[in-house]
Amino acid sequence: MASAPTLGGGPQKKHKVTIVGSGNWGSTIAKILAENTRANADLFEEEVQMWVFEEEVSIPKDSKYYDEAAGDKPQKLTEVINKHHENVKYLPGIALPSNIVANPDIRDAVKGSTILIFNLPHQFIGNVCKQINGHILPYARGISCIKGVNVTDDGVSLFSEWIGDGLGIYCGALSGANLAREIAAEKWSETTIAYDPPAMDYSRAPTPRTGSPNPTTGEIPEIQHTDARGRASKTKLTAVPSDYPPLDQDCFRTLFHRPYFHVQLVSDVAGVSLSGALKNVVALAAGFVDGRGWGDNAKAAIMRIGLMEMVKFGKEFFGETVQTATFTESSAGVADLITSCSGGRNFRCAKISVEKGISVQEVEKQELNGQKIQGTTTAEEVNSFLKARGLESEYPLFTAVNDILHGKRQVDEIPNLMSDS
Ligand SMILES: NC(=O)C1=CN([C@@H]2O[C@H](COP(=O)(O)OP(=O)(O)OC[C@H]3O[C@@H](n4cnc5c(N)ncnc54)[C@H](O)[C@@H]3O)[C@@H](O)[C@H]2O)C=CC1
Ligand SMILES: O=C(CO)COP(=O)(O)O
């Protein structure tokens, strides 16, 4: 284990960072993390592990990476990334720092890491967590960059909480107006990180939700989560050993903040996670109306109604744990809604689907080269949750998007369906 001297002369371990996922956003975040682990050698091990869902890629003849010896033979994506320091499939044209190690073995990638960054399409996270459960450090901490919600028959839960509960660790959330391709090109943007673990990790005062260790016994409080049906779950955390730098908000700010990627810290994990998930449904609606050529006023109307439904959903099902300001003031809320409804993949796929008269899923396959949009599944998941509670009519925009995706409604019906909003 790498160590560095402390003021007291004792060993000071460094945090090891693993990113679970390597798509368009996953690879962009890996770039940011690797730049910052290099710049902060007192806190972090320089090498960043990046778990890659292994697949084979063909390198075209006109590519600078074309290898005469290999010819057209497909090559493993991990090997291409480690050799050329570029994710040629999911983030082409962007140089990745050489301290990123692409690893196809998920258990090996997370081994010994104190910091786990979850960044993959939400439909794959369940299987990945199953594979790493029991193979991570008990005192690891996580951040979920996933934009989606976890819906089961029992209710809606946030991936940050679901990952935390499942793995027995604390997991915060990162979300913002963050089109990956712009950030990978180092164009300035803001993001929001919500990280609010019990005070044992904290250099600041504890919040009422997370409490602090019992001053007499030193016992660590459990983290309590309440799902959308009001059912509570508790995660008993293992404290981060004191020979590591504190794993607090400041540590995560240092890990993520770049001159071109400004981090705003909040404690509302639920609000940040929900905003990121629900705005994808709204972005599909914005794409539908743009595809019909209705212009910016219609798109603004969609954003206004969508934001209202996002806040209503958060307040109705997550109560006091979400703050309205997260939706209306943070990068994770209104700013992400605007960028996603302007140039996101959900928006673009929905727009093209209307223009070409084909399904959004078909456009996704044709246009995105393996990238996955999240709005289609989130629209279905949110709809099945609302339907089961007889609440579809209270969320006309969310409901209309799902109905259009399933051919039950037409885009032209949107104005009438929104008439009471
Ligand atoms: N791309 C963007 O601009 C942004 C994306 N996000 C969010 O980040 C999350 C990750 O998305 P991206 O990195 O964009 O992914 P992506 O859509 O670019 O790529 C798909 C990824 O899924 C992986 N994959 C395919 N099949 C798999 C399987 N069976 N098991 C596990 N992995 C599999 C692929 O290897 C690839 O890494 C999503 O929740 C997305 O909403 C958030 C902010 C920006
Ligand atoms: O979340 C995003 C921007 O913040 C990306 O949205 P898309 O997945 O629709 O591209």
Automatic annotation (TrEMBL):
Residues 16-198 form the Glycerol-3-phosphate dehydrogenase NAD-dependent N-terminal domain. The keyword Oxidoreductase applies. Residues 203-239 are annotated as: Disordered. It comes from the Eukaryota. Its EC number is 1.1.1.8. PROSITE patterns: NAD_G3PDH (PS00957). GO terms for biological process: carbohydrate metabolic process; glycerol-3-phosphate catabolic process. Residues 268-414 form the Glycerol-3-phosphate dehydrogenase NAD-dependent C-terminal domain. One of its GO terms (cellular component) is cytosol. GO terms for molecular function: glycerol-3-phosphate dehydrogenase (NAD+) activity; NAD binding. Keywords: NAD, Oxidoreductase. It catalyses: sn-glycerol 3-phosphate + NAD(+) = dihydroxyacetone phosphate + NADH + H(+). Belongs to the NAD-dependent glycerol-3-phosphate dehydrogenase family. It comes from Cylindrodendrum hubeiense. It holds the Pfam family NAD_Gly3P_dh_N. This is Glycerol-3-phosphate dehydrogenase [NAD(+)].
